[in-house]
Design brief:
The protein is of the alpha/beta class. The chain folds into two domains: 269 residues, 3-Layer(aba) Sandwich (Alkaline Phosphatase, subunit A), CATH 3.40.720.10; 90 residues, Gyrase A, domain 2 (2-Layer Sandwich), CATH 3.30.1360.180. 26% of the residues lie in helices and 16% in strands. Strands 4-3-5-1-6-15-2-16 form an eight-stranded mixed sheet, with helices on both faces. Strands 9-10-12-11 form a four-stranded antiparallel sheet. β9 and β10 form a beta hairpin. α6 packs parallel to α8 and α7 packs antiparallel against α8.
Length: 420
C-alpha cells in the first residue's frame, strides 16, 4: 500500500471508531408501536336467557360466582308477561312491556290488520314505542355494539348500533364472545363503549328437558365457560369492563297432566287466541263478547282471567292497545291451552310466562367491574331498574320518565362514574 493511501485509510478508521464510541447529537429512536394510554372502562350487558338465580347452586359456575363475589348479585323479578322479548326490551328501555310496546312474543295491532308480530319481526313499526339504550347512546355520541339482542337489528328512525349482528342460533357461545373481543381490539376512536351479548342455550335446555334436568346443568356450565373466555379476553387486552349479567326470566316444570283447556270451555269460532300457555291473550269474535266474558271471568281451578283493563295493578299490564281484550294467567306449573298444543312449545319440559312473583320466574342478576363495589347479595328488585343502572355506567343522564330507577344499586356504585 502506498503511503498516501495508508494515511487516508488510517484517518478513516479513526473517524469510524470515534463515531462508534461517542455519537454526537444522535436523534431519539422512535418506538415501533405506539403504546395506548390506559383503556377507559366499557359496559357490557350480558343476557343468559332463562337462567334462574338458583342455577348457581349447582356448583358449575366458578366465573359467575367470582363476578358475584367481586360485585353484587340478586334474584331479579321479571316484568309481566315473563317471556323473552317483552323482558329483553324492558331491560334496555327501563319501561315495562305495557309501555315499551312489546307486550308479548306474539301480538297483533289493530293498525296492521292481518299481521302478527313474532320473534322474527324486525319491522320498526312494532319496536319504536320505546327507545332502547343503544339508540340513546348513539345519539349521545357513545359507540355501541350488539352481539344479538331482541330489537337491536331494527332501524330505529334511522339509528342502529355502530355494530350489530342478526341473530343466528348456529353462532355458538365461543364465536359470540370472540366477536365482542374483536370489537374491543379496535383503536380507541372506533371502539364500542356499550356492548350487549346474548346466550340462549340455558333457556333452550330448560324448555326441552325442564329446569331440574342434567342437560340444563350442562348448559349452565357451558355458558359459565363462555363468561370465563370473555374475562380472559378482556384481561389480555387490558380492557376494564363493567359486566352486567342478567336473565329475562326463570323456568318452571310443566306436564301434560297440568293443563286447562280453554278451547273446551268455549265453542269453536267464539274467540281468536293471540297466545296461550302460561298466560293467554285472546279476543272474542264479533257477537260472542258476552259469552266469552261470562265464561272466562268465572271461577276456574288453576286459572284466572280478566278483561284487559282489569288486570291486577301489580302486573302493570293491560293499557297498551296491543294487549288482547282478555288476559288469563295459569297457576305456576300449569298451562292454559286454546288448542291441542300451545302456540310456542310442547307440553313437556319447562316454560315461563307465569306470575313474575313466582320463585320459579326469578331471573339472574350480577354486576361487577371498576364502578361496582363488592357488596355481595342485594334484595330483589324489578328488572325495570336495570336500564337506569346502565345509564349510570355508560355515562347517560338519569331519565325520570322510566318505570324504574337506580335506587337498588346506589350504595354499590363508586363515586366516579365511568364515561366514554
Amino acid at each position: 500500500m502506498r503511503w498516501p493511501t495508508r494515511i487516508i485509510a488510517t484517518a478513516l478508521c479513526a473517524a469510524l471508531q470515534a463515531c462508534a464510541t461517542a455519537p454526537v447529537n444522535a436523534p431519539p429512536r422512535e418506538p415501533k408501536v405506539a403504546v395506548e394510554a390506559a383503556r377507559a372502562p366499557m359496559t357490557i350487558l350480558i343476557s343468559i336467557d332463562g337462567f334462574r338465580p338458583d342455577y348457581r347452586d349447582r356448583g358449575v359456575t366458578p366465573n359467575l360466582d367470582a363476578l358475584a363475589a367481586s360485585g353484587i348479585s340478586a334474584a331479579m323479578r321479571p316484568s309481566f308477561p315473563s317471556v323473552t322479548f317483552p323482558n329483553h326490551y324492558t331491560l334496555v328501555t327501563g319501561l315495562r312491556p305495557d309501555r315499551n310496546g312489546i307486550v308479548g312474543n306474539r301480538m297483533e295491532d289493530a293498525r296492521r290488520p292481518g299481521e302478527v308480530f313474532t320473534m322474527q319481526t324486525d319491522d320498526p313499526f312494532w319496536w319504536t314505542q320505546a327507545e332502547p339504550l343503544w339508540v340513546t347512546a348513539e345519539k349521545a355520541g357513545i359507540r355501541s355494539a350488539t352481539m344479538f339482542w331482541p330489537g337491536s337489528n331494527v332501524d330505529f328512525n334511522g339509528i342502529r348500533p355502530d355494530d350489530w349482528q342478526q341473530y343466528a342460533h348456529a353462532v355458538d357461545a365461543r364465536q359470540r364472545v370472540d366477536s365482542i373481543i374483536d370489537w374491543l381490539r379496535r383503536p380507541a376512536a372506533t371502539r364500542p363503549h356499550f356492548l350487549t351479548l346474548y346466550f340462549d342455550a340455558v333457556d333452550s335446555a330448560g324448555h326441552k328437558y325442564g329446569p331440574a334436568d342434567r342437560h340444563v346443568t350442562a348448559a349452565v356450565r357451558d355458558v359459565d365457560t363462555a363468561i370465563g373466555r370473555l374475562r380472559d379476553g378482556l384481561a389480555a387486552l387490558g380492557q376494564p369492563a363493567n359486566l352486567v349479567i342478567v336473565a329475562d326470566h326463570g323456568m318452571a316444570p310443566i306436564s301434560a297432566d297440568r293443563v286447562v283447556r280453554i278451547d273446551r270451555m268455549l265453542p269453536p269460532g267464539a274467540f281468536k287466541a293471540i297466545t296461550d300457555g302460561p298466560y293467554v291473550g285472546l279476543n272474542p269474535a264479533p257477537g260472542h263478547e258476552t259469552e266469552v266474558a261470562r265464561t272466562l271471568l268465572g271461577a276456574h281451578d288453576h286459572l284466572q282471567c280478566w278483561r284487559k283493563g282489569e288486570v291486577p295493578t301489580r302486573f302493570h299490564y293491560g293499557q297498551n292497545a296491543r294487549v288482547p281484550a282478555f288476559v288469563c294467567l295459569a297457576e305456576t306449573g300449569w298451562l292454559a291451552l286454546t288448542r291441542d298444543a300451545p302456540i310456542d312449545h310442547p307440553v313437556s319440559g319447562g316454560t315461563h310466562g307465569f306470575d313474575p312473583a313466582a320463585p320459579e320466574m326469578a331471573a339472574l342478576f350480577i354486576a361487577s367491574g371498576p364502578a361496582i363495589k363488592p357488596l355481595g347479595g342485594l334484595a330483589g328488585f324489578d328488572n325495570v331498574d336495570v336500564a337506569p343502572l346502565l345509564r349510570d355506567l355508560i355515562g347517560l343522564p338519569a331519565d325520570t320518565t322510566l318505570d324504574g330507577d337506580d335506587a337498588p344499586f346506589r350504595g354499590a356504585l363508586r363515586g366516579s362514574r365511568p364515561h366514554r
